[in-house]
C-alpha cells in the first residue's frame, strides 16, 4: 500500500497546540529549515521508480507518489514542495526520486522548481534509471546492452559511503537464456565532472570499467545516477536498495529494514510418509486411496541430530524444531523402550529452538472424510459440518507441551504450529476456521499460531492468537532422497501427456512448471536446489520476517534440505559485510515484528504520523501505543538513552509513541552525510530481535504438497 498522503501546512498556533510545545521551542533556531521525513517519488510507471517505492513501502518509510500520466495530478511547483511554518522554512520532502534525470519536457517549470528546491534545501535526487550522458556527469556509454550474469563491484567510495553493508560483489541475475533481464549503460565520468562512482562493472571488450551507480554534484545539487534498469524482485536491486535509500535520506528516516531468515523443521520425533514413485501418491496419507500401497516412513536418526548440530555451528544459525512428542513415545513402545533419536535431541536440546506441533499431529479442522480423494468435510445428519472438538484440540496442545517439558525442552508456550496448519481455514473443503480452535488456544495460553503463507498470508487474529505465516520450501515432506523429490516434482509440474498431474495446465501461472521432466539423478542439484535457493534468498533480501518451513524427513537419508539452506546462507555471507548479519529469530519475535508493521502501516495510511528534522533533532508524533520504526546514525538517542541496535552501519529499531511528540537526537556528525564504517568482528547471524526503546518481491507461490 502506498503511503502517498499529502500533509497540510499548519499555522504556528496549530503547531504549538498539536505538539503541546511552548512557543519558544517552536520558534527556536528559526533560520534552520524543517525537513519533513517523507520522500517524493515522481513515477512514469516504469519498473525502476516502482521498485524504489516498493522498498520504501516495505521499510515503512513515508512517501508521496505522483504519477506523471495522471492528468489530475498536482503540479510540482514551489508551493507544492515547500512552505513556511511559524516563520520557519519547511521542505516537505527529504528526497526526490525521478524516473530519470529530467522526465519533463524541455524548459519545464516543474523541473526548474525541483532544481531550485533541491538547491535551497540541500535535497538529494535519485535518477532511478537514466541514460549516461554529460548532463548526469558521464561520458557517452562505452557499452549499452545486456548485463545478465555480470558481476558488478562496489567501489572503495561505495564501501566507505552508502553501500558499506555489502561485501563487494553485486551479481546480476540471469535466470532465462532467452529473455533479457537487465539492460545497462556503462560509462566513465566526464572530464571535469564532480562524479563519484559507487558501483561499477567491466566494460565488455575493454580494460576499463563503467559506472552503474554514482553521485553527481553540480549547481549546488546532488544526484544519484543509476544507469541500469531493474524491478523490485531482481537480486541486484535488492542488494542495492538499502544503499539507495540511505543515500537519499542521509541515513535519517522513518522505517527500518533487516534481512530475516528462520527455518522451522516440522514433525520432529515423528515419521513422515514416503512418496511412492509407482503409485504417484503417498501411502499412509490422504492422497492415496485407503489401503493402497505400503507405508515406508521416513524418520531422522541420532546421526542426523549430530549432523544438524555441526551444521548449525558451521553456519552460525539456529533451526526451530517443531515437534510431536508421541513420535518418540511410539518409537519406545515399538523398540523396547529405546529411542536413540529422542535421546540425541534431548542431549543437544539447547542447540535448537523448540515449538509445539501438537502431540500426535492430527488434523484439527473439520472431521475429514478420507473415503474419497480429495477428502471432504464430514457432516452431521442435519448437513452441518462435523468439527474436531475443543477438548481434542486442547489435549493435543497440552499433552505435547507436557511431554516437551518432561524432556527438558526449552519451550515458549505462547507458540504453536498445528499439524498441516489445521484448524485454520483451507480451501476448498473448509472455508472457515474450526470454531473450536480459538477457545482451545485460549485454554492453553497460545498467542502465536503458524499459518501457511501460500494459502493464508495475511496476519490475523484467531481468538487470543495472532497468526505468523510461514513460507513452504518446495522440498517435499514425503521425500528423504533426492530421486524421490525429483520424481514427485516431475509428477506435479509436468503435463498429463508426460505422465504428470497436469496442475500446470489447470493453473498456468504456477511458477515451477516444467516443459520436460527432470533427470532423477541430476535434477535436484541442477534445477530444484538453485530455484529454491533463489526463491528463499529473495525473501531474505526483501525485509520479509516470515519464517520458512521444511520437515524432519528432509534432514535424514540424503539430507536434501541442506543444499538449499547452504545455498541461501553461503550466498548471503558472500554478498554482505559482517555488519549486516542474517537476523534469525524465533516465531513469536517474527510475529511481533509483523504485528508492529501492520499497526505502523495503518497509522501511515490514516495520515496519523508526523515527522520532521530540524538540525540534529528529529521530532515524531504517532498514535498512542504505536511502535515507530526508524533508522538513524550511530550514536542517536531518545531521552538520553541509546536508540535502536546496530545494523548495516547504522542503528535501527522500534520506539513506542505515547500520543505526544517525542524527539530523537542525532549525533553532531549527522549534520552532513558521513562515511559508513564496517565494525570488525560482527556476528554473521543475529538472533536478537530489533531493539524497542520504551516510551519517554508479485510473489509467485508454487504449489507445495504438505504433510
Explain what this protein looks like in three dimensions.
- This protein is α/β, with parallel strands linked by helices and 707 residues long.
- It has 17 helices and 36 strands.
- It has a nine-stranded mixed β-sheet.
- Helix 8 (302-315) packs parallel to helix 10 (340-347), helix 11 (390-406) runs parallel beside helix 12 (437-443) and helix 15 (523-540) crosses helix 16.
- It is globular, with a radius of gyration of 28 Å.
- The chain starts with 11 loop residues before the first helix and ends in a 14-residue tail after the last strand.
- 47% of the residues are buried.
Describe the protein's topology:
Blueprint: H1 12-19, H2 23-27, E1 34-36, E2 39-43, H3 47-59, E3 63-67, H4 78-81, E4 82-85, E5 88-91, E6 95-98, H5 109-121, E7 125-127, E8 143-146, E9 151-154, H6 156-160, E10 169-171, E11 183-186, E12 194-202, E13 209-218, E14 221-226, H7 235-249, E15 253-254, E16 263-268, H8 302-315, E17 320-323, H9 326-334, H10 340-347, E18 353-356, E19 368-369, E20 376-377, H11 390-406, E21 411-416, H12 437-443, E22 448-452, E23 461-462, E24 465-472, H13 482-493, H14 503-506, H15 523-540, E25 548-551, H16 561-575, E26 582-583, H17 587-605, E27 610-614, E28 617-621, E29 627-632, E30 637-638, E31 641-642, E32 645-647, E33 650-656, E34 662-665, E35 685-686, E36 692-693
Parallel strand pairs: 1-5, 2-3, 2-6, 6-7, 7-14, 16-17, 16-25, 17-18, 18-21, 21-22, 22-24, 24-25, 26-35, 33-36
Antiparallel strand pairs: 1-27, 4-5, 8-11, 9-10, 9-12, 12-13, 13-14, 15-29, 19-20, 23-24, 27-28, 28-34, 29-33, 30-31, 32-33
Helix pairs in contact: 3-7, 8-10, 11-12, 13-15, 15-16
Amino acid at each position: 500500500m502506498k503511503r502517498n498522503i499529502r500533509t497540510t501546512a499548519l499555522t504556528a498556533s496549530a503547531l504549538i497546540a498539536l505538539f503541546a510545545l511552548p512557543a519558544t521551542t517552536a520558534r527556536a533556531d528559526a533560520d534552520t529549515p524543517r525537513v519533513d521525513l517523507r520522500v517524493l517519488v515522481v513515477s512514469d510507471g516504469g519498473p525502476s521508480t516502482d521498485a524504489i517505492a516498493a522498498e520504501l513501502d516495505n521499510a515503512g518509510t513515508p512517501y508521496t507518489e505522483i504519477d506523471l500520466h495522471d492528468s489530475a495530478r498536482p503540479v510540482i511547483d514551489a508551493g507544492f514542495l515547500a512552505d513556511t511554518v511559524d516563520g520557519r522554512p519547511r521542505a516537505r520532502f527529504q528526497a526526490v526520486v525521478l524516473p530519470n534525470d529530467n522526465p519533463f519536457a524541455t524548459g519545464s517549470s516543474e523541473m526548474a522548481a525541483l532544481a531550485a528546491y533541491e538547491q535551497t534545501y540541500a535535497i538529494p535526487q535519485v535518477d532511478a534509471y537514466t541514460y549516461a550522458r554529460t548532463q548526469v556527469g558521464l561520458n557517452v556509454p562505452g557499452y549499452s546492452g545486456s548485463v545478465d550474469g555480470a558481476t558488478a563491484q562496489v567501489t572503495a567510495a561505495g564501501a566507505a559511503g552508502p553501500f558499506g553493508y555489502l561485501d563487494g560483489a553485486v551479481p546480476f541475475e540471469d535466470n532465462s537464456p532467452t529473455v533479457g533481464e537487465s539492460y545497462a549503460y556503462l560509462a566513465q565520468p566526464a572530464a571535469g565532472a564532480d562524479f563519484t562512482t559507487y558501483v561499477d562493472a567491466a566494460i565488455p571488450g575493454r580494460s576499463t570499467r563503467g559506472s552503474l551507480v554514482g553521485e553527481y554534484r553540480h549547481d549546488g545539487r546532488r544526484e544519484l545516477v543509476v544507469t541500469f534498469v531493474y524491478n523490485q524482485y531482481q537480486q541486484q536491486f535488492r542488494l542495492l536498495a538499502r544503499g539507495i535509500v540511505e543515500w537519499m535520506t542521509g541515513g535519517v528516516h522513518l522505517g527500518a529494514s533487516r534481512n530475516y531468515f528462520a527455518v522451522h523443521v516440522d514433525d520432529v520425533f515423528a515419521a513422515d510418509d514416503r512418496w511412492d514413485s509407482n503409485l504417484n501418491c503417498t501411502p499412509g496419507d490422504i492422497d492415496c486411496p485407503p489401503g493402497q500401497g505400503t507405508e515406508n516412513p521416513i524418520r531422522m536418526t541420532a546421526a542426523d541430530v549430530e549432523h544438524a548440530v555441526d551444521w548449525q555451528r558451521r553456519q552460525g544459525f539456529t533451526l526451530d524444531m517443531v515437534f510431536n512428542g508421541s513420535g518418540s513415545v511410539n518409537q519406545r513402545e515399538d523398540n523396547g523402550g529405546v529411542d536413540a533419536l529422542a535421546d540425541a535431541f534431548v542431549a543437544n536440546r539447547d542447540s535448537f529452538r523448540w515449538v509445539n506441533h501438537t502431540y500426535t499431529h492430527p488434523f484439527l479442522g473439520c472431521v475429514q472424510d478420507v473415503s474419497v480423494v480429495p477428502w471432504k468435510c464430514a457432516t452431521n445428519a442435519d448437513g452441518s459440518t462435523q468439527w474436531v472438538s475443543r477438548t481434542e484440540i486442547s489435549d493435543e496442545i497440552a499433552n505435547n507441551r507436557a511431554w516437551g517439558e518432561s524432556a527438558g525442552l526449552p519451550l515458549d508456550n505462547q507458540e504453536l504450529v498445528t499439524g498441516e496448519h489445521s484448524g485454520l481455514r483451507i480451501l476448498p473443503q473448509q472455508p472457515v476456521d474450526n470454531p473450536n480452535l480459538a477457545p482451545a488456544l485460549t485454554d492453553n495460553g497460545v498467542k502465536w499460531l503458524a499459518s501457511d503463507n501460500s494459502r493464508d498470508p495475511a496476519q490475523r487474529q484467531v481468538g487470543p492468537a495472532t497468526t505468523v505465516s510461514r513460507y513452504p520450501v518446495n522440498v517435499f515432506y514425503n521425500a528423504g532422497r533426492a530421486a524421490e523429490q525429483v520424481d514427485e516434482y516431475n509428477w506435479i509440474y509436468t503435463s498429463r501427456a508426460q505422465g504428470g498431474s497436469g496442475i500446470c495446465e489447470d493453473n498456468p501461472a504456477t511458477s515451477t512448471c516444467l516443459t520436460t521432466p527432470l533427470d532423477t539423478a541430476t535434477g535436484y542439484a541442477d534445477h530444484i536446489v538453485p530455484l529454491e535457493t533463489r526463491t528463499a534468498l529473495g525473501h531474505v533480501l526483501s525485509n520479509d520476517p516470515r519464517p520458512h518451513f521444511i520437515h524432519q524427513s528432509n534432514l535424514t537419508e540424503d539430507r536434501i534440505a541442506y543444499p538449499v539452506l547452504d545455498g541461501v546462507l553461503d550466498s548471503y555471507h558472500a554478498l554482505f559485510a559482517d555488519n549486516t548479519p542474517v537476523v534469525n529469530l524465533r516465531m513469536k519475535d517474527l510475529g511481533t515484528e509483523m504485528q508492529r508493521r501492520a499497526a505502523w502501516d495503518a497509522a501511515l495510511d490514516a495520515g496519523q504520523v508526523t515527522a520532521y528534522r530540524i538540525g540534529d533533532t528529529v521530532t515524531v508524533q504517532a498514535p498512542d501505543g504505536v511502535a515507530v520504526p526508524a533508522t538513524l546514525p550511530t550514536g542517536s538517542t531518545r531521552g538520553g538513552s541509546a536508540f535502536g541496535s546496530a545494523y548495516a552501519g547504522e542503528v535501527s529499531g522500534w520506539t513506542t509513541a505515547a500520543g505526544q511528540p517525542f524527539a530523537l537526537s542525532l549525533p553532531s556528525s549527522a549534520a552532513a552525510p558521513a562515511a559508513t564504517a564496517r565494525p570488525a568482528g560482527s556476528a554473521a547471524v543475529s538472533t536478537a530481535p530489533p531493539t524497542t526503546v520504551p516510551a519517554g518481491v508479485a510473489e509467485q507461490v508454487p504449489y507445495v504438497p504438505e504433510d
